[in-house]
Structures are given as structure tokens and as C-alpha cells.
Fold each of these.
Amino acid sequence: MSPEVGTILGLTTQKIASGFGADGAAFAAGTAGLLAMVLSLSAKEYDRAADIRCAENNDLRALFAALAPGVRDAALKAKLEDAAAAKDASLRISALNESNYALRRLLTALQIDAEDNGARDAERRIWAVLKAMADRRLVQLGP
Amino acid sequence: MSELSQKLQAYLRTKLAAPDLAVSGLARIPGGASRETYRFRAHYDGSERGLILRRDPPASLIETERAAEYRAYEAFHGLGLPVPAPVVLELDAAPLERPFFIMEEIENCQTGSIMSPDPYGPHRDSVGRQFYTVLGRIAAVDPRDVGLGDFEGETDIHNVAMHEVARWEKVVEEDEREPQPIARAAIRWLKRNPPPPAQKISVVHGDYRTGNFLFDDGGTIRAILDWEMSHLGDPLEDLGWAIDPLWAGGNAAFPGGMIARAEAIRIWEETSGLKADPEALQWWEIFASLKGAAIWISAACEYAEGRNIDPINAFSGWFCLSFHNKVLADRLAALS
């Protein structure tokens, strides 16, 4: 999730410290309201960030393990098999992001391969994972 | 009096040949990450006038051409549509540090919030009918008739859709800070499944939606705002954007929190004289969600890299992008 929580906390601190009242009361009130909302969302994201990334990485590795045997491109197949066999060694968000970004890039390569080869079943399975990713990452505004 | 107010007053005294002109009440209006917007009063020639200053920010969310925006205000105000009268355009950065333009303030009005489940209350139906009627009227205009024949955009009805896809693909390419598999898949789908040719080339507002127009207490739409992304293109682009579920808290049946989708399309067709072919409209609706995703990816980038730390950019990068990713994933999974 870009920007990450750490970036938001740092830039929010900077925004508050630099003052935002010079442009008038209405603008300051609007900015304060937005800052409050962003901080509230950051609190939720802090709680779920590692869980989202772990679940997504697991889903992607399982998908790669399932679809790699049907991939004809040898180089792509090898990458999928390597990725499917890997594990996350750390639960730090930065480490999980690093593996997640690599897995997401590989997912796009796999999807292009499926589209180019008319592998409809593979396409459907990829979309099921993408749907699950979108559902999991959806930001809820309510409590 | 603030420094900006003093500079504005000095500028207007010269520009309007009104040596006694006085500026008062300059105050920034919340919202809008692509322009800084201020309201102020100008006192001159024995009268008082409410005006709006739109100034380029230090870094813009989407690079837009303020001269084009100003020309769009001129053209559609001149046609008698509810569009504020433009007053002055200044491309020289010297007077106020950045380029800007000034237009009349439409007073005693409000906007609808995309966060509200019922942004128009008792005026929902009336506002909705006006909203799609005005959009149909914009679509019906021949750009050459209002001096916008040379506007930015594609003028070949066969290429206009791919021109827009390329434009937003470039934004994703330049601004994604992490892989975006859903946006990338949407771009490929849009390229592989082109829509029918445009029925005509129109001026596309580019951001025609709930939140970007003013209505008064009687439920009359008084001003269509934020023409900064206006360009030449397929008029279905605006319709697809206007009915995107983001503008109604996800309620696709009543887009924008106004009238039912079917009635909205019927009014647009009747007013524009065009057809909203279901296949073409579906393509433009998917395009709208991709365009939204590209804008939010750009917002997140501007924020995270410290060029524009307005918190609206962080909010857009999180909430709006996650929303449009879900819309795209649901729609494209159903089509796969």
C-alpha cells in the first residue's frame, strides 16, 4: 500500500509541524479533517498490513505451484516454480513488500502468458486471485 | 493583508485598469489537489464582486493545461450552460509565483460529497435530471463551433479510445511505486477489446461527476466546475466517468447518488442525440475505473515522494485506488 503507514505518519507530522492555518479557518478545518481520516485509516492498516501481505504471498505461491506445470515458456516456468517454493523469512513489512512486489510482477507475466496462449482456465484462476487481493486490500471507511 | 492578497490586488489593479481596486477576504477553499483554489472579494468601480482564484500548485496531481481549462470555461459559459464566467488568465508565473486564472464566484451554493450516501437529499431527482441533461448538451456541441477545434486530444473517431488508454497507461508507467497487476490487466483488456468507433468527437469535460458541480438550495445546478482535464474525445468517456460507482459510495444502480442508471442514460441520449451503445459504454466504464486508478496511483506517488503532501493524496492513494481496483477486478473477472 503506497504510501506506507510509516510514510504517512512522517509526512503528517511534517504537515502539522509546518502549520496549515495560514490559508484561513475553512481550509485549516478541511485539512485537519483529512489528516484525522488518514491517521484513522493508518491505525487500521497498521493492524492488517502484515496479514494482508502474508495471505497474498501465500495465495500467489499456491497459484504459481498450480499453474506452472501448464506453462510452456521454460524461463517463466522456472521462475514460477522457484517462487512457489520460497517462503517469507521475515514478517517486517519492508521484507514482505519486497517478496510481494516480486510475486505480483510474476503474476502479471503469468497472466500475459495465459492471455497470449488462450489458457482460459488459467486466466479464470488468476482473476479469482486478483479478486481476492482486491477484496482483502479494500479500504473501509467505517469503524 | 497577506502577501498573496497584496500581490493579487496589485495585479488586478493593472490588469483591470482599476487603480482603486481593493481585494478582501482572500481564503483558500479545501479540496482540489491539482489547483490551489481561493475565494476573495474585489471592490472596484463602486461595486463588489465575488471571485475565485485558481493557481497552479507547486506540484500538480495530474499535469493539466490551465490555458485549456480557461478556454473550456469561456466556451461553455458563452453557450449559456451553468459554467462560471472566466475573468482573467495569467500564464506568467511572476505576478503570483505560479500561473493562475480568475473566474466569478457562484455564491450560496454547495457541492455533493461522494462520501455521502444521499448527497442531494430531496433534490436528488431534479439534480440528477439536470446533471445528465447538461452532460448531454456538452456532448452535443461541435468543438469547432465553440472555438475548441484545436483542443488537446484525438480527433480520429477510430483512434480516440486507444489514444486515451495510452495517455493513462503512461501515467501508470511513470508513477506506480509498486506493481499494479489489476491496472495492468485492465490496460491489456482495454487494448484487446476496443470499443466501436466514436459517434463523434466532442469536448470531454474529463472529470464530470458528483463533487464537481454546485447546486443551490432550490436544487438548481448553478455551475459545472473543474474543467482541468477537458479534451477532445468520445463523449461516452464523460458518461462512463459520471456513472462510475466511486461517486456514489459503490451504488452502481444510482450513480452519483442521483437518478437511476437507466434514466440517466436515457436523458443523456435524448439531450445529446447520441446512443449509449451497451458494448461501447461497458468499455468506457471499465476505462473510467482504469483512469481513476491511474489518477490515484499518481496521487500516491506525489505524496509518497514528498512533492505534494496534501493528505487528500494519501487518502486517494489508499481508499480510491483500492475501490477502483475492486471495481476493475470484479468486472474483468466476470468477463474472463
Note: The radius of gyration of chain A is 20 Å.
Amino acid sequence: MSAATTTRTQRSRREARAAALFLAPDAIGLTVFVAIPMLLSVVLGFFWIDGFGNVDFIGVDNYVRMAKDPQFWNSARVTLIYLVTLVPLIFVVGLGLALLVQQRFPAVGIIRSALFLPYVVSMVVVSMIWQFMLTDRTGVIATALSAIGIDGISFLGDPKLALGTVVAVTVWLQMGYYMIIFLAGLQDIPGELYEAARIDGASAWQRFRSITLPLLAPTSFFVLLTSMVAVVTGGLDMIFVLTSGGPANSTSLLIFYIYQQAFLFGDLGYAAAVGSVLVVFLLIVSAGMFLATRGGRFSHDD
Amino acid sequence: MPPDPIPRRRTVLAGAAAAATVPLLSSCSASRADRPLSFWNFYSPAPQQDPNLVAQSDWFAQAIDAWNASREREISPVYMTGDQMNQRMPIAFASGDGPDIFLISPGDYLRYANGGVLEDLAPYMEQEAIDDFYPEALTTRRDGEAIYGLPMEQEPLALFYDPDLLEGAGVAEGDLPQDWEQLLDLSARLSSGTITGLVLDVDPGYYQNFTFYPWLWQTGGDVVDPSTQRPVFSGEGAQAALDLYGRAIASGATPRTRPANGDIVSAFSSGYAAFWQTGVWDVSNLRLNAPDKHFGVMPLPAPPGKETITALGGWAWCVNARGADPESAARFVVQVLGSMEPSSIEHVAAWNGPVKGNMPARASVDAALVASDAFADEHLATFHDDILPTGRGEPRFPPAVYKAVSDALQSVELAGGDPTEESDRAQQTIESYLETYQGGTLV
């Protein structure tokens, strides 16, 4: 073996060791606080557990019960509607805002900060403020609508409107975060491409469709994936404060249903089983997204 | 003895699950033999400086200090909010590290009783003290001769009203609604602009069910017949009570969300609500936080031709049978709440009187309060003389029964559901659940 090869091997080992050391804190944290609890939660789904030390293996009974449980299916339906409306809205609004604040104009920094600000406020506080604003008859929104002759709308008390209201508040809350991510993606796109397109006579829409969107694909993939996971696994605080899952279960997301089963009803095994189904759903959708994009790689990266 | 928990096959896998649960849920704890007994509550030590909350905190502290001064096994209060307690209790009990003493409402009672974690307090009590508790206060914490919790209060529901607002609409206090129909008619007439006629609870939860039961009972209906333990929710009474809630919303008498986020002080002070169904605790709340606001209290109107009935809420102290020292904890609870010693009666009278301002759960405490003219306040007098005697203890139902009633109520009230269909659906759910239910009686 030549001296050069030995040096390369040693360097390669050192790099591997350094990489392992850098990755270790995250890997250990993920294993202890995510992977192991996730596996244990799957195990708990096969038990009846009352939370007082009484445990009984019941096989797939929790899953059979779930299949027959109308409240589970209602929550699954609500979660699906929430997911398919919220993720595209977050995507479009986040991207739209990023395109707007990408421009250089006076006070752009302040506007960017203002749009991001809701994201750093506690979700409980945000939810309470919106609850005040959306109160029937006396809330600021009801008062404003009444001034223009629109009365009797109950944004949080009408089952037909409550979920849409939660979606709107969530978009308002999260749009700043996704705006920042899109902004970072936009700033990575070389300006020469736009310049060349302009010289070739491309319109703004053509430049957006042919340059911005394709080159934003990795960022878009990241936003879609993370927002989907955040939407399905988050939102508990907001639902807890804004609607308590009501009116008439119209905002009872699966994550809220799991909370109810575990913490209010003490049915930990069933809650774990529902949680496992949710995790499997997320894994399947995420895997599908990775497969469709060849592991998140896009043609211009190749 | 606690009621037998649901029969279960112990298996190796059960052990595996328990083992799997431990690293998830357990927390480090000091040696159980040495540490003070923990008392989880939402009063003490108070994290705020509000004089009323400080007085309540001090009441707990005095009871604990008196015990700690004379006993080896100390008690240590742990404060948390109600929501925090809801979230932490299941985790703590699942990891075998539940509090030694804690507060629970009837809504939660059966879960803990059926889980076998409540210590029977009867062996630590004199018969005279047991008989001193009003049956409606103690029944929902008993199983046969055993007593699994001692109530510290009774909190009846009533209808609070704003006389100024009513007067402005031409309604004198002598013309207050006498039955459901009058209440709905008047409330619908009053509802306009920012004014709400009648505030009923709208958020799904144990509290909403608690506020619904009096309307249900006034019809002669019930969820479960206490004598037969069979569900009776598909009866005409339940349908009428559900229909009342549906009509209240549909007629515009009741809003779909409560004014001022459910804060009666703000709502009454701002003239936002004419009638509000709430409990005795709001007498002192309004007195302290809106001392200039004139308000009235009346019993809940009944259906035409029926008698008024109310529900009695309130919290009980329970002892963890699997705690570090259940015997000492039980003796502490009995010394504070369930003894015939004059000091115990005086201390509880202070709670139900000047400190909290609610209704007593014991005859001797009631006598002490009457003797000290504690019900001189006109609203407390209404509660004590007119409303409390019509009370029935908040029922203890397992979660599945609570949820079936809640779903029916929410559907009829807020989603236009048909009362007959919804009561039938709830009835079927409860019937199906009770077929395999084993545990404490549903009363």
C-alpha cells in the first residue's frame, strides 16, 4: 500500500469518526426520544391499559374497535380535510408572501418580521386572542361584519365554519415560517436566469413557471413534507383552546382524539393504537413523496 | 374495598408492556419512605397575589401546617392548574408515582375507583362524622359502606341574571321567567346586537354535561336509572331536554360561543348577557371582581308544571391507595374534612363561608355557618334556602357514557341534530358499553 493510499484511508477514517461525533447528539436524541417511544407506542397498542398499572394483552382488539369506532372515522375524516386544505394553503400563501417580500423596497425588513412574528408567539396565546376576536356578537370580527350588515355568523360555533376557521388561523400563524423557507430558496436561484429570460421576452408568469417553480422544487418538497407532518401531528394546542374538538366534533382532529382517549378517558392502549395508525399513515405518505422524487432529488440537482 | 377492576388475563406480554411503559412514563423520585406526602391541588401554594386566591391557599396551608406540626409524616402541597392536573395525573399514576392526596370531581371518580387506586376512608372515620355528610354530597363518592373521597363543598347551579339589562328591556324582577318556555321567549326577545339573552355552556366537555343534567332531570328523565343501572336516555325527558338546547340556539336566545370567552364578570359588567347558567362560585367572583355590579340569582326554571332541580358540583379529596403512606394520608384527609372535632368543623365552615363562599357538604358545618349568619348575603341565601334543597349530586359516569351524552347534546345544540335520533343513538352506545362494563355503580 502506498503512502498516499494510507494517508487517504486515515483521513477517511478521521472524517468518518468526526461525522459520527457530529451526528451522535442528534442520533442519540432521536433514538431515545423519538424512535424508541414510537416503537413502544406500537407495542402499547396491543394492550388494554387503564393508566393505573392494570395491563392486559388484547391482541388486535384495539384495532378492531378502531375500525368500528364512528368517532375515530369522524376524526380521520376531519384530519384529512384539514390536511388537504391546509397544506396547499400554507404552500401557496408562504410562496406568495416570499415572492412579495423578496423585492427590495423600503421597510421590507419590518414587513418580513411582522409576517414572521405570529410564529414566535405561543400557540395558546394566539388561540386565545383569536377566540376573543371571533366571539359571536361581541368579538371584533362580528362587530366589524355587523357594521356592514352581516350578522349571525358564528365562526367557531357553527360546525360548517369551525374547521375552516381553524385552518385560516393556522395559515395566519404558520405562513411566516414557510415564507422564510421559500425566501431562502428564492435567493438561491441565480439572477442571471431571470435576466436571460427577460432578454428573451419571457413574461413574469413565464419566468415564474419556467424558472422559479422548477428551481424551487427542493424547497417545495421540504415545505410540503414538513408542513404535512406538522399539520397531522400538530394543532392540538389550538384545537384545545379554540374549540375543544367541537362544535359537534367538527374540529376533532385525530391528534385531539388521541389526547382525549389517553388523558381524559385514561384509555392509553387505544390511544397508542390510534397514534400508531397515524404514524403509519405519515410514513406511507412520506415514503410515497420520497419515491416520487427519487429521494428528494430533482433533475437540476443531478 | 375498591370495586373489582375489569377481569384480565395476566400474561408475559402484559409484563412486557408494563416494562415498556416504565421508561416512557416513570420519573425519578425520592425514597417513598422518606419523602413528604404530596397533595396535588389547584389552590395552594397560590402562584398569584389575588387576595381571594391567597385566602384559599392559606386555608389549605393552615390545614397542612396543623397536621405537619403534630405528625411525623409531613404533607407537602403541590399546585397545578386543572388542565395540568388532567395531563399529569394519568402519567403519574401510570408510572406508579401518583400523588398521595389529590382532588377529583364526580366526572373523574369512576376511572380512579375502577382502577383500584382510591383508599377507603371509612375505617378512619367515626360513624357520626359519616352521617354528618349530606347523602347527595357523599353518594357519588361511595361504594357500599366504603368512602373513596370526602367532598369539601357543594356547588349548585342556578340562573344568574342582570337586573339592569332586564329593566332596560321592560322586565321587572317580579316578572322573571317561571318555566322553560318563558325563559326561551324572553331570552330570544332580549337577544339583539351585542346582547345575549341566555348563556348556556356550548363547549364539549364534562362541564357542559354537568350543566345539562339539571334540565334533563327536571323532565323526569335521566341518563342511567340509578336503581336498575340500565340506560334510559332514549326517553321523552331526554329528548325534551336536548330539544331545549336545540331551540335555545335555533331561536337565537343562546349564542354558539359564550360572550367574553365565558367570563361572567366581563359579560355582566359590559351588559352583554341577561341570563347565565352558572354555579354558586360566581357569587363571590362577581362580588370581588365587579363589586358595583348589581346581579340576581334564581333557581333554574323547570318545564311547565314540573319542579326545579339543580346539579351539585364540587370537589372531593381522595387518597392514593398505592401511595407512600395511604394510612397517614387518609388520617390527614379525615382530620381536615371528616372529623367531628370542633376544629375540623370550624375549618371547613371557613372554607364554605368567607374563604370560598359555596355550600357545605355536612350538616354540622351548615349549622355553624347558619349560626354565624354566613348566608346573610341575599344571593347566598337564595342558594342555601331555595336552590340547595333541590340539588342532586353530579353523576359519576365512565368516559364512554359521558361521551355518548356529550355527542348527542352537541349534535342537537349546535349541528341541528334531531333530539329523538340523537337520544336513541346515545342510548344504543351506552347500552352496548354497559353490556361489558364492570365497576362501580353509575349514580
Note: Chain A touches chain B through 49 residues (CB under 8 Å).
Amino acid sequence: MRAIPTIAGYALREALRRKVFVVVLLLTAGFLVLYWLANHYVFQDIRNVGAPAGIEPRPFAGAFMIGLAMFSTLFLGVVLAVFLTLGAVRGDAERGLLQPLLVRPVSRPMLLLARWLGAIGVCTPYVIGVYAAAMVITGLTGHWWPDHIVVPALELAFGVAIVAALSLLGSVFLTATANGIAIFMVFGAGLVSGLLGSIGHALNSARLEHWATIVAWLAPFEALYQDGLREITANTTGLTGYLLQLGPFGGANTGGTGVRLWACAYLAIVAVVAALGFSRRDL
Amino acid sequence: MTPALSVHALEKRYGQTTALAGVDLEVSEGELVGLLGPNGAGKSTLVKIACGLVRPSDGRAEICGAKAGSLEARRRIGYLAELFRFPGWYSADELLSLHQQLAGSQGGAEERAELLELVELTEARDRRVEEMSKGMQQRLGVAQALVGAPPLLLLDEPTSALDPVGRRTVRQLLEELRSRGTSVLLNSHLLSEIELVCDRVVILLRGEVVSEGSPAELSKPRGVEIETDEGIRLYGGGREDVPRLVAELVGAGRKVYGVQVLTSTLEDTYLEAVGGETS
């Protein structure tokens, strides 16, 4: 067990020195500047716009903007998580980086756990930080704050942690490139299911909503994201609440304790499969 | 006494390909064993099974009595892979510190300084790996393998990237380790190196041991070359026949100027064992 902090520290240091981290930070800075501009203009113009009956313009605009920020935060967090883990096993083994570590008295599951902790040690503070920055920008610019502040941040961070675990699992079996492609496809599938769920909700198509929910549960980072969207307007009702449920980039349809428990179980399943696969792998 | 490495009927198959076909091998305490064989003979597979990177298909491999690959076994080995890389941003000292933590070594800064001195990298203590030459990285790899003073060292081509001076450094290091009682399994293509430092040589071919013995045992007599006033002539026999041959020549009135006992080199033995096979 004492090797875990050592290898997590090794992974953390590796993460912080990679160029991808600098790129993500630059992209984040660019995103936050644009996000502030968007908030500035949206809330400036909203005063002059006559909202349709039943729509509260400020909560609608605020929730829409934060929903947009959550999507961007999730995407950037996933990019970071995937690039930090996509070559953790097979990629590092092919480069000869893994073997010197694995011949030490460190069990393979411990090594995977440490790599995951190292990755989420970077990704989750990043996701929470970007979410908080976006929320503060919207709050100060538009004087609107989410109904629940903490839970959406934690759910986004948890979603990214799940993607990091999936990427580590993929790295046991796939080359770094193939793994990266596969994980982004899974992530994309999750997002598409969210959009289809929104469409199904708007069209009142139970079948479409049902399948979107199944996909969201198969890719629980998407379900957590949707639950986070639901949490930011948990107390918003009426037409405003209904429209916000459609959500930008996926609806706020799936949620609750069930999803969070399932996400924990899902993470445990991914961990077990990764540990078994890794322990049987010749290097 | 429990051998440092004990391999019995070891087999490894990759699909239809047999890498090891029932290898038996022992490395005793303080023994330096050289592993020879053409490419694809199974040398690296054998070493990787010993350090737990590859699972055997059948048979048994033990390190100091513990099953190869177990945490107990891995506490007792130092390993340098044929193809390895260290993270470029680590300094030599930081890298050794990382491996000390992973190996549970309590040696601290003193051990790190000693290891860097052993591989002649004291001056490069704070130099980052990415700023080192391949030869320096390889010597750092040897130092890394020695962290925690393991009783068994598994070295897979440790001198492949070294210049002659670097090779001599590693050779001297191996001799020093032997004097300390460390066992070494050395996998190398450099026959001269194996011949110079190893107590015993094992030749593998297509996953099987085809020849085994000390370098002297593997060297076969090729005759006695004697220079007389009639010129140089090769006589049959070995070292024990020299007094008789010289006495006969002198008795026959010849003037003897020089005598040389000829034996086959390890290279001759190796080539005979592998039949000229290269891969």
C-alpha cells in the first residue's frame, strides 16, 4: 500500500509536466474569457428582450449558460483525463517505462489504482475549479446562482473520474492511439444519447427517452452530467423548468441517488475488470 | 542452500509459438551465470518470467524459494530490461529515490550516492535522464537494478549501448557484486564479456538448453602448437601432453622455441551449439 502515494505522485508529476496540461490550461483560459463575454452580452440584452409568457428570463439564461459551461467543463476534463491515462499500461509497456516499476514489489492492481489516483488528482480539481469559475462569472454578471451549487461540481468530477477509469481499463488492452479513439467514441455516444433523450422528451417519445436513459446508464458519466444539469435548476418550476429540462447538449432527465450509486458500482466493475485483465497480461 | 533462481521444466507458449520448451536452470548464491543464444531462443522470456513480467505456460520458477512474480520474489530481485526507458524529467538521484521507495529500501541518500559511484555517475547525480547519453542511461539502469541490494540480479543485455570503457565498468561491477555474494543472471550477446566474467554459461536454442558449463568446461582442446627449428607444427592432445611432446622433440634433437596449448573459444562452442542459427 505504501507504493500507492509514490506511484500516484509519479503519475501526478508526469501529468503536470505534459504539454497537454498546458494546452488544456490555455484552452480553459480562452473558454473562460469567451464565457464571460457571452454572459456579459446575454444578461445585458436580456433586459431589452420581452420574454414569452411563463418564462423567467434571468433563471432561464443563467441556467442555460451554466449548462453550457458544464458541458465544456466536462469535455475539457475528459480530454485531460484521457490524455493522462490512455497509454498507462500498454503504451508505457511498449515504451519500456512500465517494466522497471512492475518488477518492484508493487501489485498490478495497486499500480492501476495509483495511476487512477494520480490522474483524478489533476482532473477533478481542474473540473471543480472550472465549474466554480463559470458559476462565479454567471453569478456576478447575471446575478443568478444555481439552485444547488456543490452537487453538480461533484457529479462532473465523478463523471471525469469514471472516464479516467475507463481509459485506464482500455489502456490494458489497447494501444494508446486505439484507446484514445475508443474512449472519445464512448464519450461521444453518451453525449448523443443525452441529445436524443432531450429530443424524446420534447416530442414526448417514451421509447426514445427509454433508450437514451439506458445508454446514459451504460455510460454513467453522461447520467451524472444530466443529473448535474438537473441539480442546477432543481427548484425551478413551470415553463422555465420544463424548457431547462431539455438542456443544452443533453437533457436533465436522468438523476437521483440511483444514478450516483450505480456510478459507484460501475466504477468498481471497471476496476475489477481492469485489475483482472492487467494481472493476466504478459509484458 | 536455496538457490537464488531455480527454474524447472519451464514452458512458455505464445499461441502456436513455443518460446520456452521445458528449461531447467539454477543460479546459486553468489554465482554469475551467462545466458547465451540466438535471437528468439527464449532468453528474454526466461528473464521476464523470473521477474514476473510474463506468466509461464507450465513449469516452475522460484526466486530464493518464492514463486517468481510474487511480491516476496520481487523483493529479492533487481532487473534491467533490454529495452527500457526512464521518465526523462527525473534526475539520476530522483530516479533512484523513486525505486528506493518502491523497493522499500531504507538506504537513503547514502545508498544512492554509493550506487551512482559504482556506475561512475556521481557527477551526473542531478542531471535529468533526458539529458543523458544512452550509455549513461544504461549505467543508471544498472544502478537502479541494484537498489535495495537484491540477492539476485537479472540483467538483459546490460552493455548493449555501452562503449568499451562503459562495458569494463559494468564488468568490474559484476565482479564486485559476485564478491559480495550477489547472484547474477546475465543475458548478453557479447560472448567475450560472458567468457570474462561468468562462472557458468547456459546456451539456449529454440527454448531449450543445448549446452551448459563453466567457460573452461565448454572450451575444448584443439591441440598443442610447438615451434621448433623445423618450424611451427600442431600436435594432438592437450595441456597434460605438453611435457611428453617437448621431451620427445628434444630427445629427437629438435630445438624447441615455443609451446602454445590451443583450446576452442566460447565463440567456437557457441557456434557449434547453435549450428550457425541467428534468429
Note: Residues 3-279 of chain A form one domain.
